[in-house]
């Protein structure tokens, strides 16, 4: 698994961008991450609060 998953808590939701290039994951701790699907690279935490 990519290193960005560590310590984020359970994944509660996932969604793909309309072009299918990004995956968004919502976590139990309130964090939201964007992932580059082709490389499965964490694109960074997004502030959605």
What does this structure look like?
By secondary structure, this protein is mainly β. The protein has one domain (3-46). The chain has no helices and 4 strands. It has strands at 11-16, 22-27, 32-36, 41-46. Strands 1-2-3-4 form a 4-stranded antiparallel sheet, with no helix packed on it. The radius of gyration is 10 Å and the shape is globular. It starts with 10 loop residues before the first strand and ends with a strand. The mean pLDDT is 76.
Question: Quick recap of the structure?
Answer:
By secondary structure, the chain is mainly beta. 0% of the residues lie in helices and 47% in strands.
Could you outline the blueprint of secondary structure elements for this entry?
Blueprint: E1 11-16, E2 22-27, E3 32-36, E4 41-46
Antiparallel strand pairs: 1-2, 2-3, 3-4
Domains, number: 1
Order of helices and strands: EEEE
Spatial shape: globular
Estimated share of beta-strand residues: over 45%
- Helix coverage percent: under 10%
Mean pLDDT: 76
Largest beta sheet: strand ordering: 1-2-3-4
User: Would you count the extended β strands for me?
Assistant: 4
Tell me the radius of gyration. Answer: 10 Å
DSSP helix count?
0
pLDDT under 50 segments (min length 5)?
none
Q: Kindly name the structural category.
A: mainly beta
Instruction: Summarize the biggest pleated sheet.
Output: 4 strands, antiparallel
Q: Kindly report how far apart the N and C termini lie.
A: 26 Å
